[in-house]
Amino acid sequence: MKAVTWHGRRDVRVEEVPDPVLQQPNDAIVRITSSGLCGSDLHLYETLGPFMGEGDILGHEPMGIVEEVGTEVGDLKVGDRVVLPFQICCGHCWMCTQGLHTQCETTQVRDQGMGAALFGFSKLYGEVPGAQAEFLRVPQAQFMPIKVPEGPVDERFLFLSDVLPTAWQSVMYADVPEGGSLLVLGLGPIGDMASRIALHQGKRVIGVDRVPERLERARARGAEVINLDEVDDVGEEVRSRTNGRGADAVVDAVGMEAHGSPVAEVGQRIFNALPKRIVAPLMNKVGIDRMSAIYTAIDAVRRGGTVSLIGVYGGQSDPMPMLTMFDKQLQFRMGQANIKRWVDDIMPLLVDDSDPLGTEEFATHQVRLEDAPEAYEKFQKKTDGTVKVVFKPGQSVAS
After folding, report:
1. Which helix (H) or strand (E) holds 105?
2. Tens digit of pLDDT for each residue in 33-47?
3. Which of 333, 334, 311, 339 lies closest to 88 in space, CA to CA?
4. Helices (H) and strands (E) in the chain — how many of each?
5. Which of 71, 84, 90, 101 is the most exposed place for a label (fewest CB within 10 A)?
6. Helix, strand, or coil here: 99?
7. Taking residues 205-231, what's their average pLDDT?
8. Strand (E) or helix (H) holding 136
């Protein structure tokens, strides 16, 4: 089969690799019909290379058709149309029963000290072959697959794999009060969808980015926007719009790749130039993140407000302004999204043919799997209006 594979910093390739096979009685094989390119994939493309292996298959936002099943997959059957969450979880351990599927005790990557294994996401999360491929082996298939109805296009349901539940959790964790305001930092796929969800819930949303196409998408849905290139101080601009207080809550949908951190950016480049055997242990102990987004969140949120971290950070000793955080009496909530926890809340919006969250038009680019290297480059550089890319294995599409 064809798959997107990692070969170094900013070096992804489409190669022929062995087809996946059933390994456990609760495995399934899914033929991928759509697979998303996520902002988290750019961390592997750029920053987290020391934890990648040559030839690792990327991708963690899949949906498709069940082609083969093991003997212990419950009512899952060949021909089912399914979406797969990005984290691999069993559904029956103590953590899963608490709705904390990203901490699944069955699939925790204990040798790395990390939570549940993830598709296509480095040694840190189990080095499980990913979903930017023609076929995918799905472990824990007695619980993992989300069955979706036939009829609507893939994009109506595809984003249940990551974008929708991740954005949903970020808004739930933000806990915006009735009539309150939500500041969303970063209007890439997660920030964009978080804005749509909060607007659908009747919240006031202020979105921040510097990419014109992203700002216009949010504005068109009803959000107020702030262009980073047109203001000197985001916090001051937000306070000027909120009676001098700041936003009731902030979603940081940017994470470690924030702009405006030139020293940290140079540090990341130096790390990536060093041998993996040296860098990987260091990255487990030191601060490597560009911190401007989280610093902005702390500044722009009102006293007593909430910061919801959904952008991925990777450093262990990043400096945090503890005095300000304590003095402002801030609450922080964070973590990988617990996909299955939110599916029942989201599904009614997806089976509604009015498509209230605009999922069918959410992707800006549908591309062949063979065009993955170019898609990664455009997404990383934010060119050609690239906000969300969906790969279509085995299909002929115009990018």
Report:
1. none
2. 999 999 888 888 876
3. 339
4. 13, 15
5. 71
6. coil
7. 97
8. strand 135-138
